[in-house]
Amino acid sequence: MEEKDFFVETEVTLPATLHCPSCRQSETYDLRWVQRKKKASLPPHAGEQDRRRFASAKSYSVRRDDMVQCKNMRCRKRFEVSGLQSVAFL
Ligand SMILES: [Zn+2]
User: Fold this and answer.
1) Cα–Cα distances in Å, from 7 out to 1, 17, 44, 68?
2) Residue 45 DSSP SS3
């Protein structure tokens, strides 16, 4: 079994406050995340090793957006999302 068999995937959008490094303006940006929620149980055909892996698996989310475009109309520069983790446990 693969790791994806352990989780139910959903795309979510979460707001984050980010500072543009060019104009230093801070704004709220909607960032896309993929949430992987651990399934309630494994399918019946899962083996011993799968059960052990499943037992230690945790729900988590992975950030999809690495770059955003500055909301300041006079700036509009793209900058990297920093100071924010890219993987978060739920
Ligand atoms: Zn800017």
Assistant:
1) 12, 29, 15, 28
2) coil
Tell me, in angstroms, the distance from the centre of ligand 1 to residue 23's CA. 4
Residue 7 CA to ligand 1 centre (angstroms): 37
Q: What is the pTM assigned to this prediction?
A: 0.81
Distance 25 CA to ligand 1 centre (A): 6
> For each of the chain's 90 residues, which pLDDT tens digit applies?
888 899 999 999 999 999 999 999 999 999 999 999 999 998 888 999 999 999 999 999 999 999 999 999 999 999 999 888 899 998
